[in-house]
Amino acid sequence: MVNNYKNEFIKVYNENITRPGASSLLDYLKNSDFFTAPASTRYHGSFEGGLVLHSINVYHCLTDYLERGRVKDIYRMDYSEESVAIVALLHDICKIDVYKKSTRNVKNEATGVWEKVPCYNYEDNLPYGHGEKSVYMISGFMKLSREEAMAIRWHMGFSGIEDKNTIGNALEKYPLSFALSVADMEASYFLEGDK
């Protein structure tokens, strides 16, 4: 199953992202745990391959969201396929190499016995923030437009911990930020949930 998500990710990536440095970034992803890492420790995508699945889901949610804007002839939402693929597929690369396999004790409700179950622990050796860390990592390989960088930086929307006025200002000035935030929430809560 993980290979299917990996193959789809690589196909979408190669068909849409062609700017200088894109192939080096894809090589980096292939040599990291990106394709096997979970998307979170206990919530959406908290299983092997959850991160790549989440990235694919965000891509599909974002393309659907933007298509609705195109149908209604909302010009502000007309972005290149490359920009859409970049922000959706790469918004969470900050999660590379931060999830470590471990175990935790959980009480078996049927037997009342404590049992060890597999889990992931979060260990970030580059604590640079969330969206800003993804922007930083991508920028080491290829140039982002300001709109792309802002979308990735602010993809958490109002669920982020920053000042709400700052978030609102960013989402208003950079509509792709808002669109990516909506797609990320849709993928996280509607498609993936906490299972």
> Major β-sheet, in short?
2 strands, antiparallel
Structure classification:
mainly alpha
Q: Tally the helices.
A: 8
For the largest sheet, list the strands in their spatial order: 1-2
Measured as a percent range, the helix fraction is: 40-55%
Relative strand content:
5-15%
Low-confidence stretches: none
Walk me through the topology:
Layout (H helix, E strand, L loop, with lengths): L1 H15 L5 H9 L19 H22 L9 H10 L8 E9 L6 E9 L8 H9 L6 H8 L10 H10 L1 H18 L3
Helix pairs in contact: 1-3, 1-4, 3-4, 3-8, 4-6, 6-8, 7-8
Overview of this structure, please?
By secondary structure, this protein is mainly alpha-helical. Helices cover 52% and strands 9% of the residues. It contains 8 helices and 2 strands; from the N terminus they run ααααββαααα. Strands 1-2 form a two-stranded antiparallel sheet. Strand 1 and strand 2 form a beta hairpin. The radius of gyration is 17 Å and the shape is globular. The mean pLDDT is 90.
Please outline what is shown here:
The chain is mainly alpha-helical and 195 residues long. It has helices spanning 2-16, 22-30, 50-71, 81-90, 131-139, 146-153, 164-173, 175-192; strands at 99-107, 114-122. It has 8 helices and 2 strands, in the order ααααββαααα.
List keywords for this structure.
195 residues; mainly alpha; two-stranded antiparallel ribbon; 2 strands; globular
